[in-house]
Amino acid sequence: MTYFMNPAFCRAILRVAGWLVPTEQRMEWLEEWQSELWYVCECFHPQRTFWESPTGFCIGAFPDAMWMWNHGEAAVPRFRFPIRSPLGCIALLLVLASVTFLTAFVDPQIRKEIMPSRNCDQQDLAILSTSSSSDDTQLGTSGEQYGRWRDHSPSTMAGTSFYEPTGSSLTIGSGQSNLIVGWGSEDLFQLLRFAADSSAMSRARQMHAVPIFLSQNARQRYFPRDSIVIGRTLEIAGRTAIIMGIAPPYATDLPGEVDVWALDDPQDMALRASRHCAYGYLIARLDQKWIVEQTEPILTASKGERTTDTIYVARLSVIARRHRIQPLLTFLHAVVLACVVLPFILSIFPCSSADLRTSDKAVRLRQGMFLAFKMVLLAPPLFFGPFILCFVRGICG
Amino acid sequence: MVTEAKLSHTATMILQAVSVGYIYGFSVMEATGLPSGTVYPALRRLERDDLMMSRLEKQSVADSEQRPPRKYYKLTTNGKATLESARKRYPLLSKLVPAGELEQA
Fold first, then answer.
1. What does the pLDDT average to over A137-162?
2. What is the pLDDT of residues A186-199, one digit of tens each?
3. Closest partner residue to B25 among A36, A68, A71, by Cβ?
4. Which string of DSSP letters, residue by residue, matches A330-365?
5. Does A64 contact B36 at a Cβ distance shorter than 8 Å?
6. Where are the alpha helices (DSSP H) in chain A?
7. What angle do CA A313, A319, A323 make, to 5 degrees?
8. Span A92-97, mean pLDDT?
9. Chain A contacts of B45, Cβ < 8 Å?
10. Is A56 in contact with B69 (Cβ distance < 8 A)?
11. In this complex, do B69 and A64 lie within 8 Å of one another by their Cβ atoms?
12. Which residues in B lie closer than 8 A to residue A40 (C-beta atoms)?
């Protein structure tokens, strides 16, 4: 066949293969192969097989070029991995795993995403809204709507409450910070089952101070060194406030990213309930027998009202679950990914080819252990890495 | 002290071919029946492992015969010792790659 003999075609194959050879050695390598090609063409006759033809001969240049790529003089400093021993490799991976693990667990935001959901005992807590979505950014309700629905709670609900997350200033001593305060109706703490300190509560009543609960994050951020914060007096949005306690961890799953939960004056709350611009969240305790797994419509306001609304119920556990990854599944995914990428980024067995052929059980055992160690140590960077990257991107973006 | 590396059968065949007079790449291919993709990387590996050495033919010699210059291979002392040892492991080696016309490098 003519293509077996076409010299231009053969030279083109050699040139393509030549791109794999380090630049410094490419010319010499190409001349050597072209010289050999001349002899192959001279000796070729049609009875020969494809691999003995000039084309087959030139295709063989690719393994040779690959060898040059891996072992060529110029390639040595560029491509050789600096760590050549198994212990060095394990140490490097151990450092990488530790750094990613610590980074992920030190930062509260990443930890929140990684740790399993803490609202298992809050199956009856739900968000009510006019949106059928369980995306918490769309679950908001205007104060006006809350005012309309307040008196229409169906019997399937043990109670409802409203809170409006508002940016406010917090004054502690001489310092001032900005945070998000969830101003809630008078039954908010009771509905959320926040356990208030009785003495702090009575003091708040006496002083006409705003009773507040700090979120777990706010507790760590504003009072990291204080062992006792309950009963402390602060100033929020120009009003005196007393800390009743620390909100349970599941409260961080409630929409609005609230730092401080505060009870508003009934008069102020009534004002919020009449304002269309007040934007908050309507939460409810559902009857224990009433099971909803997805967002469901529950109530249509009776005719004669100004508008007819359909209220949808979205369980907090469902909302939180959508925001969370399943840690075990993700970890297994990371292990699978480690198995796939491992051969490409590190040699599985960093020993000579003679060792690979060995039947020595001790050597094979060491090789297996080394592989297992690498897979386990690669899993944390693969698992935590995306969270850290997302967090870094969030800061930079 | 010369250390004798353990060679694969293919590498031993190539070493044997060079030792019996097939001293350039294409002739090694012809003698062993191995494809170019096996022979040329193996020759480089053997040279790297100091079992073989190579030199490029003088351009004037090649020009006088109106052909391109060849790269000639030759066994080193280490290579000869290794081949000797390998022959014991592969007794049929000399039959697989019989001696050819000895070319003058």
1. 71
2. 888 888 888 878 88
3. A36
4. HHHHHHHHHHHHHHHHS-SS-S-HHHHT---HHHHH
5. yes
6. 7-18, 23-43, 54-59, 61-71, 75-79, 86-106, 108-114, 143-149, 188-192, 198-207, 216-222, 266-274, 316-323, 327-345, 353-356, 361-396
7. 165
8. 86
9. 67, 71
10. no
11. no
12. 26
Using CA coordinates, name the residue in chain A closest to B8.
A354
Q: Is B67 on the interface with A (CB under 8 A)?
A: yes
pLDDT of residue B60: 86
Q: Is A291 helix (H, G, I), strand (E, B) or coil?
A: coil
CA distances from A277 to A140, A173, A274, A337 (A): 11, 33, 9, 48
Q: First CA to last CA across chain B, in angstroms?
A: 28
Of B26, B41, B45, the CB nearest to A40: B26
Which has the higher per-residue pLDDT, A54 or A3?
A54
Q: Does B26 touch chain A (CB under 8 A)?
A: yes
Contact assessment for residue A143 and residue A273, using Cβ atoms and an 8 Å cutoff: yes
Q: What is the per-residue pLDDT for B94? A: 77
Single pTM value for the model: 0.44
Residue A389 pLDDT greater than 70, yes or no = yes
Mean pLDDT of A45-64: 82
Angle, vertex CA A201, rays to CA A199 and CA A204, nearest 5: 110
Contact (CB<8Å) A38/B39 = no
pLDDT for residue B40: 92
Per residue in A239-285, pLDDT (tens digit) is 888 888 888 878 877 888 888 898 887 777 777 666 666 678 888 88
Helices A61-71, A7-18: inter-axial angle, 10-degree rounding = 20
Render pLDDT for B27-46 as a digit per residue (tens, 0 to 9).
Answer: 888 888 888 889 999 999 99
- Chain A positions touching B32 (Cβ under 8 A) are none
B82 sits in which H/E element: helix B77-89
pLDDT at A352 over 60: no
Res B68 pLDDT > 80:
yes
- Between chains, do B68 and A68 touch, taking CB under 8 Å as contact? no
Q: What is the pLDDT of residue B73?
A: 93
Return the residue in B14, B40, B57, B89 with the most chain A beta carbons within 10 A, the one to mutate for interface testing.
B40
User: From A65, which residue of chain B is nearest by alpha-carbon distance?
Assistant: B41
Query: From the list B6, B35, B40, which residue is nearest A51 (CB)?
Result: B35
Taking contacts as CB-CB distances below 8 angstroms, the residues of chain B near A76 are none
Say what the ipTM of the complex is: 0.86
Instruction: Tally C-beta pairs within 8 A across A and B.
Output: 62
* Rg (alpha carbons) of chain A, rounded to whole number: 34
Q: For B6, name the nearest residue in chain A, comparing CA atoms only.
A: A354
